[in-house]
Specification:
Blueprint (H helix, E strand, L loop, with lengths): L2 E7 L1 E3 L2 E3 L17 E7 L5 E6 L5 E7 L1 E8 L5 E7 L4 E7 L3 E7 L4 E7 L9 E2 L5
Antiparallel strand pairs: 1-9, 2-3, 4-11, 5-10, 5-12, 6-9, 6-11, 7-8, 7-10
Length: about 130
């Protein structure tokens, strides 16, 4: 399955945390094309987002606030992975998901926010429903 989990340091002081989410040096040459950056919010515990996959887009996710459960499944092989991304972790976690990996996120806290970077512009014609969570 085409995914990668990376952990890295937070720089914390009494004011809060500074986290370098993604640098050009983190990206392979073929993924340096800028697509877009967006935020996904979850307004209450139990909200599920995504439940789809893309055939073209590669994505990088990180939790900015709260905690989310993540389900992944390779649509070709059926291989599955579950993990939790928590903004309160000592080390920050960035999740990279390649094309043809179905993904779903469920908020485990009262509210959550996720930042997302894509190597291409999001397009409705590259969103394929795939239910991983109910």
């Amino acid at each position: 399955m085409d995914y990668k989990i990376e952990t890295f340091d937070k720089f914390s002081d009494p004011r809060g945390d500074l986290i370098v989410f993604l640098r050009a040096s983190n990206l392979d040459k073929k993924y340096k094309n800028f697509g877009q950056i967006y935020f996904v919010t979850f307004k209450k515990k139990g909200v599920i987002r995504a439940n789809h996959y893309h055939k073209r887009i590669r994505e990088w996710f990180g939790v900015v606030h709260g905690k989310v459960s993540v389900s992944l499944q390779d649509v070709s092989t059926g291989e599955k992975k579950r993990l939790v991304l928590d903004s309160k972790s000592d080390r920050y976690i960035r999740l990279e998901i390649g094309p043809n990996v179905a993904h779903a996120f469920k908020s485990l806290t009262a509210t959550s926010s996720v930042v997302n970077y894509t190597d291409q512009m999001w397009s409705q014609d590259d969103v394929f429903p795939f239910e991983l969570m109910k």
